[in-house]
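ok so I'm stuck.
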Amino acid sequence: MAIGDPIADMLTRIRNALRNRSKTVNCVNTKVCRGIATVLRDEGYVESFDVVEDGRQGLLRIRLKYAPTGESALHKVTRVSTTGRRVYSGVDDLPRPVQGLGIAIVSTSKGVVSDRKARESRVGGEWLCTIE
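replied:
not stuck anymore, here's the structure
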């Protein structure tokens, strides 16, 4: 089955896995999805991820992070830029979700990075999603 929007598919799979209290979730292995998974790992929202070969393009197996009380590290995952409506932000207009407690994931010329790293690098780009 062809996936029209792999980013939205990945975020929906993560949302569903969090709702079911799953420890891992499998997503399609694309360059952008790997970048999003890297940002989530670096910012501490997921434990880790690895690429599982399946004879085609592979799968990303993401290990979700939960507190000892069972609460997930991710509370709200929102897709901003879609295939029908792209949202671009300059470096001065990058969002600060939950007044800096959340992150915005941005696709820049330097790769897929969080809003904090985009501000440090002084680059803007396509605002992919928001994590709270």
